[in-house]
């Protein structure tokens, strides 16, 4: 098993969410929510552009999980809040910070920021690959 991350250790993954990501996520998820795929509809409803799929934005945390916890852990629980809609083209900095670290679970605080404003917050729990108790 990999060495456990230290409490307080964090990792930030940055990505600009593009129209291409919207297309990929639509294909993967089947989500055809109009505000996500129809620019005219999103703009008519007060957005500056189509809005980024919330779960696509939250998936950026998975890069930090993998780098901090290593290959022996998987996502066991996730609690997230989306503080505002994000227009396509947003550059997101997703940070996961270790709050507890042990062989049975690694806990994280999550924060994603766009232009200095927190847009996603939450908590995650990683568990060993073979664990079934979440």
Overall pLDDT confidence: 94
SS content category: alpha+beta
CATH superfamily: Hotdog Thioesterase
CATH architecture: Roll
**Gyration radius, in Å:** 16 Å
Largest sheet: 5 strands, antiparallel
Give the helix level as a range of percent: 25-40%
| Amino- and carboxy-terminal Cα gap | 19 Å
Main sheet: strand order: 1-3-4-5-2
Protein name: Acyl dehydratase
Show the helix and strand layout:
Elements: E1 10-16, H1 19-29, H2 34-37, H3 39-44, H4 54-58, H5 61-69, E2 73-82, E3 91-102, E4 105-114, E5 117-128
Antiparallel strand pairs: 1-3, 2-5, 3-4, 4-5
Give a written overview of the molecule:
The chain has 134 residues and is an alpha+beta fold. The chain has five helices and five strands, in the order E-H-H-H-H-H-E-E-E-E. The chain has a single domain (10-128), classed as Hotdog Thioesterase (Thiol Ester Dehydrase, Chain A, Roll). The longest helix is centred in the first third of the chain and has 11 residues, at 19-29.
Quick summary of this structure?
By secondary structure, the protein is an alpha+beta fold. It is 26% helix and 38% strand. Strands 1-3-4-5-2 form a five-stranded antiparallel β-sheet.
What are the main properties of this structure?
134 residues, alpha+beta, Thiol Ester Dehydrase, Chain A, five-stranded antiparallel beta sheet, 5 helices, 26% helix, elongated, Acyl dehydratase
């Amino acid at each position: 098993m990999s060495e456990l991350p230290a409490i307080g250790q964090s990792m930030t993954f940055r990505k600009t969410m593009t129209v291409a990501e919207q297309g990929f996520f639509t294909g993967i998820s089947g989500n055809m929510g109009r505000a996500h795929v129809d620019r005219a509809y999103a703009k008519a409803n007060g957005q500056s552009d189509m809005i980024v799929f919330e779960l696509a934005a939250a998936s950026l945390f998975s890069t930090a999980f993998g780098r901090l916890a290593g290959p022996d852990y998987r996502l066991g629980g996730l609690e997230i809040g989306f503080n505002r809609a994000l227009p396509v083209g947003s550059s997101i900095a997703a940070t996961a910070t270790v709050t507890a670290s042990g062989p049975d679970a690694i806990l994280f605080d999550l924060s994603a920021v766009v232009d200095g404003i927190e847009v996603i917050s939450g908590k995650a729990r990683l568990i060993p690959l073979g664990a079934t108790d979440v």
